[in-house]
Amino acid sequence: MGNEYILEMKGISKSFSSVKVLHEVDFRIKRGEVHALMGENGAGKSTLIKILTGIYSRDGGTVLFDGKEIRLSDALEAQKAGISTIYQEISLVGQLSVAENIYIGREIKKHGIIDWRAINQKSKELLTSLGMDIDVTKTLNSYGTAIQQMVAIARSILIDARLVIMDEATSSLDDDEVKVLFGIIRKLKAQGIAVLFISHRLSEIFEIADSLTVLKDGHLVGEYRTADLTRKELVAKMVGHDAESIVEAERTYREASGDEYLKVTGIQSGIKLRGIDLTIRRGEIVGLAGLLGAGRTELARIIFGIDRKDKGEIWIDGKPVEFKLPAHAIGRGLAFCSEDRKVEGIIPNLTIAENISIANMKKVSRFGVIRKADQNAVAEEYIEKIRIKTTGTEQKIKNLSGGNQQKVILARWLSMKPDFIILDEPTRGIDVGAKKEIEDLIKEISGQGISILLISSEFEELIRNCDRVEVLRDGRNAGCLKGEEITENNIMSLIANGKVDAGGGISA
Predict the structure, then answer these.
(1) How far is it, in rounded angstroms, from Cα 68 to Cα 9?
(2) For the chain, how are helix, strand and coil distributed in percent, rounded to 5?
(3) List of residues 6+ apart from 104 with CB closer than 8 A
(4) What pLDDT was estimated at residue 243?
(5) Distance CA 121, CA 118 (A)
(6) Residue 74 DSSP symbol
(7) Closest CA to 459 of 437, 486, 423, 429
(8) What SS3 string covers 432-448?
(9) pLDDT category, 310, cuts 50, 70, 90?
(10) pLDDT in tens, 137-196
(11) Helix (H, G, I), strand (E, B) or coil at 196
(12) Are strands 83-87 and 311-316 parallel, antiparallel or unpaired?
């Protein structure tokens, strides 16, 4: 073959409304290669994959597959072209047999009648060639996630896929299951099939990927041979350095002197959280650092009663608690500003006053009837107190800037006089000026004795604001930094290697 690349995407651009999410991105994969696509949340990975597989149309650029330009309109066209995608969530039919799932839509027929004997036999042969010895007549959901992933791969081979995309396919697998999957990937590679591999686990990338491409904020950072990078260097390329970030204020490190407010011990949940410990004192700002999938948001959701834990204990003021609903957590003085402001935070068609009061209706209502004057009074108090830029309490929140929307969400919780606030990516998607105002507000809140758990993907944000930073890695504690120890190098080192040099530098 004249062209060593099975896939070449050149100058790919994509915008949603006025927001450009991909900026002339180049991406390519060699035949028979395992190529990782890397980048933090919002980097553009999913958008690029959806353009490749026909889910999204591209605004600009070209896609060459096997040397020919293609423009796919849906996933079925992608399969017919030889591109198969295996997602984190299994997209097969659990109630059907393994063999039926492999051959669904491609049934073998004899004299116009489906030949189940042939389908079962050929399914058995195909799985055996992949090193799997299972009963193909049993229903798919009678097997675990790992086997289901292998069946999806077998189906990909059956449709003559020349490129298999694995999008977080290992996220639900344990270590032994991942080893089995990697064995299958190596077999695909030996057959000349290319694999586009996406995972948040750095250890997996360095074990299985021949090369990788890094995206950041919709831009191409670069294409690299995996063997040429250390984990620390890869983390640095993914996270990058924001030259437009806020000018650093003078740091004042605090040694928390307040009583212990929150204590979390041995929290486990599936394979996402594998035994996490955390303590926060009154008035302390504790940061959670880690790559996407490290367990930061999962831990926060368990603390707030949104999700259930499998094991572990949560203590508040020295007493064990078990929040079965967020309402129970709110009743104990906890607040949660979620990561997705648009979906889980604001109620777009309600006014600022309505958005602020919605979590504390008792304060603005009597006998189940909302007292508009009280509702507006609370809103006006916080509009002034935290400097929300608005035309008034009756303005709809959807018409505010991102930074002011975030202030409204903070006002919602502050109006309840909480003891503890979880802030998950509080400055994501807002401009530099608003970011500084939010950060100043965080410090002001802490100064009032309110404990804060700050989750952020921006290391500089953690460095500027936190008294301590707990670093998570693959659902476990990687280490805790405080005072002068809170540096970008130390955070990256713990994420990449689970340790910090004796001299405070990076362990490569």
Answers:
(1) 11
(2) 35, 25, 35
(3) 93, 96
(4) 33
(5) 5
(6) S
(7) 486
(8) HHHHHHHHHHHHHHHHC
(9) very high
(10) 999 988 877 788 788 878 877 777 899 998 877 766 667 778 888 988 998 899 899 999
(11) strand
(12) unpaired
